[in-house]
Amino acid sequence: MSEKIILTGDRPTGRLHIGHYVGSLRRRVELQNAGDYKQMFVFIADAQALTDNIDNPEKVRQNVIEVALDYLSVGLDPSKVTLFIQSQIPELTELSFYYMNMVTVQRLQRNPTVKNEMIQRGFHVGEEGENDNQRGLPVGFFTYPISQAADITAFRATTVPVGEDQKPMLEQCNEIVRRFNSIYGPVLVEPDIMLPDNAACLRLPGTDGKAKMSKSLGNCIYLSDTAEEVKAKVRGMFTDPNHLQVSDPGKVEGNPVFTYLDAFCKPEHFDLFGDCFHGKKSSFDFHNLDEVKAQYRAGGLGDVMVKNFLERILNAELDPIRARRKEFEKDIPAVYEILRKGCEQARAAAGATLADVRKAMKIDYFNDTDLIREQAAKYAAL
Ligand code: TRP
Question: I need a surface site. Which of 60, 132, 240, 340 has the fewest CB within 10 A?
Answer without folding.
Answer: 132
